[in-house]
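Each field is listed here:
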Amino acid sequence: MKYSLHKGKTVALALAAVLCLPATAFAAEDPMAGIKVIYSPSPEETAEPLPELTFEQALEKAEKKSPDLRSLADYGEFLQATKEDLWDKTGFFSVPDASYRQWISDYVYSYYSASQSTDSGMKQNAINTSMTKLALESTVKNYFTTILSDESNLEAAKEAAKVQDTSYEQGKLKNELGLMSDYQLEQLRIQTEQANNSVALLEYTLEQEYQKFNSLMGEDSEARFDLVYDVEYAPYELHGTMEQHINNKLNSDYTVLLKEQAVKDAEFKNNYLPASSDGSEAKQLQLNLDNANRDLKTTKENKELAIRNAYSTILQLETNYDNAQASLTQAQADYRVAQINLQAGNVTQLSVDQAALAVAKAQNELNQVVYNHDMQIYLFENTSLLGSAS
């Protein structure tokens, strides 16, 4: 089963489908029914459209702005120049490889050490560059899903506040007629205030998120965009066994690759010593190598646990999706019943509005699950972003 979200507008569309719009703006003729249809545009329709921003465009802006990527690029150029200098001095560039300890002349050791250090630095810089780009991609993706998710929350909160305002106004009338106590009216007032405070808080939260997002991209803090980010929900399919997935990811995980390079660096220092050395540092060098191997082993174990936990979270979210979908279906059914009862004179318009609000809330809960599911799959497939116990 697939389910799609488009530009974070699902809640607004759901509300438009179940809430009646006010009528007094301009008219259009329906030739089929011969009835004049009155239509009032929403503020969103009359406002100046925001410029669209795709995920790819946002990521390009963020990479261009990133000082970390610029620093890594500069360091990469420095290492390349160092490698070329070594080549010019000796006529070749080679990294030694030995599995046992040996003493070599100070001159050869100096060249080997410089070559190994430069080669290791270039490999680490390349890994760190890839990791930084991935982290930046993850940050941009997180801003997209967070902003769209909170926009969905805000739409639902605004509708809840509207219904609560109506309920409070009716409560004041009932209180005047003696049909509601002062205590009950005060409770309604508090609930209404809380509902409107929730709207204000979400608006403030969105404002902060946009300012941080704009800073990441190098945009003006006041700039706003129509985020183009369509999310499609479908149960995740694991190709192969979990063990195969883990092994494949450990072979390409940037965190693991850095630890493996650290082991190679420790091996070089342990296996090559200059002839002028008296060997007094040998035990320390062996200890450093042992620690590097232990660190690599621990990193792989923790990463494996994080991968398994991430997959479990995906499965949990899929159960949550089924539950949220069932809640939405029930809310839609309750709304239809409320409409029928309104026509029969059994309930008020407020009851229908409350049922419509329940649909909007259920739709919003479903949206949140879809956004979280999408992000969790992204983390599961990009294990370098997973912590030791994510």
